[in-house]
Amino acid sequence: xxxxxxxxxxxxxxxxxxxxxxxxxxxxxxxxxxxxxxxxxxxxxxxxxxxxxxxxxxxxxxxxxxxxxxxxxxxxxxxxxxxxxxxxxxxxxxxxxxxxxxxxxxxxxxxxxxxxxxxxxxxxxxxxxxxxxxxxxxxxxxxxxxxxxxxxxxxxxxxxxxxxxxxxxxxxxxxxxxxxxxxxxxxxxxxxxxxxxxxxxxxxxxxxxxxxxxxxxxxxxxxxxxxxxxxxxxxxxxxxxxxxxxxxxxxxxxxxxxxxxxxxxxxxxxxxxxxxxxxxxxxxxxxxxxxxxxxxxxxxxxxxxxxxxxxxxxxxxxxxxxxxxxxxxxxxxxxxxxxxxxxxxxxxxxxxxxxxxxxxxxxxxxxxxxxxxxxxxx
Length: 378
Ligand SMILES: *Cc1c(COP(=O)(O)O)cnc(C)c1O
Fold this sequence. Notes:
- It is built from 12 helices and 14 strands.
- By secondary structure, the protein is α/β, with parallel strands linked by helices.
- It has a 7-stranded mixed β-sheet with strand order 2-10-9-8-5-3-4, with helices on both faces. The protein has a 3-stranded antiparallel β-sheet with strand order 11-14-13, with helices on one face. The protein has a two-stranded parallel sheet with strand order 1-12.
């Protein structure tokens, strides 16, 4: 079988053969074996945030956004008000979710290359006592920036408000310990840093907070409270679960544990990211973010200035070399992105760099530098 293309993207990602093989069975949703795997999955996810004593996993069929929408709709009640911290597309999406769900909200916004500023969050909370909840994205995948979630959580807790986190692209690779970072819920999905296949979102919920959310959700399918109650009492999903995806996710969690959990997974991604950034800089490319703001998840590069650099051709030619990259999503700069997550290691990152170099030569682009070369006329 030919090697599938390596996915240097924000997800879905390259998965291991054993994760794919886990799907080669038919399971009934009432099958005792499946029910056991589902329970183990729920327990393991809570362990990843040190939440054994106080959190429960509520799975949500669908992509990651389904989990985020379910989290906001369930935790932010019709009488509550959410403050959304925005520095990219996923923060903006949470505002759109509130528009659909008709939830009151206000926003604080920063440029896509700036982290959320915890001090400004504290000031906004002091100014508006009607705000009950705050939502933040841990790693804004739009740029790859890491937001200071621990500091933000401390500010929110000090102001006696509740924090909801979209940790989609960071969960399983960057630490988020519920014993030291106060929050009520965190949403993530099967197909990012845990390296499963797409199809399942999940929200890890503080049980005491979830208990008071009955009747909040505006949509039956997105009601985490109801989903939780039914799974707890019957061990069954309310509606057809993505069984193959859950079984593969269970396998992916076992492989995540074997790699050393969050620390091990994060270490491989940090090594991938360093190889990528060092190698791209050596070819003249420049990253959007300084290293101290860069999460080891996905890296945004400025578009090269050389007029011979045509992104669509660059993309297509890299694809022919078996590497898939990702277009930019920024409003602040013309850019593209290369991910360092998924079942990829040093060999694949080095291979991707060799492909970038070969494609640049084919395009006749001497440098990836985004700066226009000074001409004698200037
Ligand atoms: C991937 C991602 C999501 C969810 O995207 P889906 O396409 O719905 O899976 C949400 N937030 C962040 C930060 C993400 O990276």
